[in-house]
Amino acid sequence: MKIESMSQQPSRREIARNAKPMVCYAVENLPPKKGGDGLYASLRTAATDGNASLVSSLVIPPCDARSWEVPAGHIWRIVCSHGPQVADMNCWSLRNPHERFYTSKTRQIHSTHLTTGDRLWSNMPYLRPMATIIEDTIAYGFDDDGAGVHDVIGSRCDPYTHNLMTGENKNDCCHSNLVRAALRDGLNEMDVHDVLNVFMCTGFTRDTNQYFAKPSPVEVGDYIEFIAEIDLLVSASTCPQGDVSVACGGGGEPRTYPLTVEIYKPNEGWLEGWGWSSSEVSGYGGDHGLTCNIVVDGAPS
Ligand SMILES: [Zn+2]
């Protein structure tokens, strides 16, 4: 009887297939942005409104990487200045390179693809906003294939996967570009981490859930812009795949272009006037149950 009544219950497989997806993290429960939504709306036009001024700029040559420092509260912009080109970006706390961009938690908190308002979170045990996207002129959303722009789902093109697939030794890839930049910054290959795929258009296929790319929709004049929530070292590689209109190993030489990086400094006291300040590390105490769950005679004390 028991077996019979149990068989009438839906199986765990059926329950899962019929259940509605639950979003895991309620973004509205995150601590509010310091300075409020009014500040972040104003940041989108801080430079054109005269609230921030350009203090430096640099060019990332094609198929290479460059690094730059951004003090907390400064703004950096990656500009499509010469032609359609994607970039792979890393960032670290300037004072502590162990604290770095944490793509998987950022993906869980926000989305597979980032846009204006989303934050770049750092790894545990810090887990705080390193930067916030304040403008994304592409604002692509998601197309009919489920593709979006600026993903945190893929990693970077690298010589190890290429070697697995072809047996070749190939150095012109974003990972190697980022490694050379890291070495110039006193870091090493182990500091290079999963990236924000700036301007890249990607998704997962509907039928097999495989990672795919499309030609980037970026046009000359487009940019993505961030405010540094802590002092940062940022690095970005101009991908040898260019705008990714040619599949890896698909034949044909992709056209590649430089990208321009601009760094802006807000006027003295402007951010503070809104109540903005640098983000703080996680408030978790860090005990991990090491001292509070001592078991005495089988019962928690
Ligand atoms: Zn690449």
From TrEMBL:
It comes from the Eukaryota. Residues 59-233 form the DUF1989 domain. It holds the Pfam family DUF1989. InterPro entries: DUF1989. This is DUF1989 domain-containing protein.
